[in-house]
Amino acid sequence: MSTTQIAAALYQLQQLDLELERLSAEQQAVASSAQGNTELQKLRTEQKTAQQQLRAGLQAQREAERTLEDLGHRLKTQEQRLYGGTISNPKELNALQQEIQHLRLQQSHQEEVTLEAMDAAESLQEKANDVSEALRQAEEAWIRQSGALITRRDQLATRRQEVQLKREQLAAKLDAELLSRYDRIRRTRQGKAVSKVEQGSCQWCRVILTPRELQHVRINTELQTCSNCGRILYFDR
Ligand SMILES: [Zn+2]
Q1: What's the chain's average pLDDT?
Q2: pLDDT at residue number 23
Q3: Which residues surround ligand 1, an ion (CB under 5 A)?
Q4: What is the pTM for the complete model shown?
Q5: Contacts of 205 (CB under 8 A, 6+ apart)
Q6: What's the CA-to-centroid distance between 197 and ligand 1, angstroms?
Q7: Helix (H, G, I), strand (E, B) or coil at 233
């Protein structure tokens, strides 16, 4: 292999390594999306809360209704005593009238309380229905999304195998010393060991090469590195 061919092979190797990095980043993202959907979890918690609040609201409504019913019975009993004509003692009659009046006030107050409790229970029911509907829709969306995630996961795994194989085949053509030099430069220079020469400059750091350097990159038997960023220069003809 000529120096230019070696530089070209290293550049190609770098493209494959960069693609492998992108693939593994996406594989990680897909795996973490598949694990859990925070929106679904949030809606499930909301639904649980809404159901608890609804149960409490319905319980409060039943209690208010029962109290109202009791008041009605008591009032009816006392009114029957009053109009039954069995009580003739004026003091006792007066006390009974006062009690009835008091019960009527309590009854009208309890009617308001009951109406409020019914309204509150109705709003809680609506809220619970809304949350359940939102949850149902989110669950459906999640089922569709999971399908897409599984497809993507398989595509990524296939692509990764292909790229990995290409990389192995390419690396097999290069000598071990060169590969370790490549790895060393990649590690210390943001994953990029090879830089193309474009319009007379290093593509990575934009430093302009001297005519002598340019000449070397093209014809020298040694690999040339950028005098500024230290990357292997690849002149793509
Ligand atoms: Zn450079």
Answers
A1: 93
A2: 97
A3: 202, 204-205, 226, 228-229
A4: 0.62
A5: 195, 226, 228, 229, 231
A6: 9
A7: strand
